[in-house]
Backbone:
């Protein structure tokens, strides 16, 4: 096979993969959950999530307070992350998301083919809720 034919084959495979993602809603949902798992869940967030969770008799945490040297802070008003923790988390999420997008769009087609085939066969986060579409601030389309 000549170089031109190989380039066309690669482009066709990429176009087929893009068409598959565009037409297979279940695959897109599984890919979204896999991306969330790889880019957000398995990050510094796990360390921030670890630890003791307070109990609430009321169920809405209005009866829980954090005591600081400067007074009590009602749980609903408490920031759960400080600026440094948020910065660390966001840097890791951005780096992992960039790596994931590189896998999707800049890897050889066979790499993506393996990922898509695997996700068609298996939901890596089957116990999670199914993804739903949402509106972005820049989305002016009234239909969503």
Residues:
């Amino acid at each position: 096979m000549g170089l031109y034919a190989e380039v066309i084959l690669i482009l066709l495979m990429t176009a087929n993969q893009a068409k598959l993602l565009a037409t297979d809603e279940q695959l897109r949902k599984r890919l979204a959950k896999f991306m969330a798992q790889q880019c957000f869940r398995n990050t510094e967030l796990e360390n921030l999530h670890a630890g003791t969770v307070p109990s609430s008799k009321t169920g809405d945490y209005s009866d829980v307070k954090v005591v600081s040297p400067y007074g009590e802070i009602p749980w609903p008003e408490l920031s759960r992350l400080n600026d440094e923790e948020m910065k660390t988390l966001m840097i890791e999420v951005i780096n992992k998301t960039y790596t994931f997008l590189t896998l999707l769009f800049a890897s050889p087609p066979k790499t993506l083919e393996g990922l898509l085939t695997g996700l068609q066969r298996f939901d890596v986060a089957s116990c999670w809720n199914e993804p739903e579409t949402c509106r972005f601030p820049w989305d002016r389309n009234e239909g969503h």
Summary: The mean pLDDT is 85. Residues 9-48+58-121 form one domain.
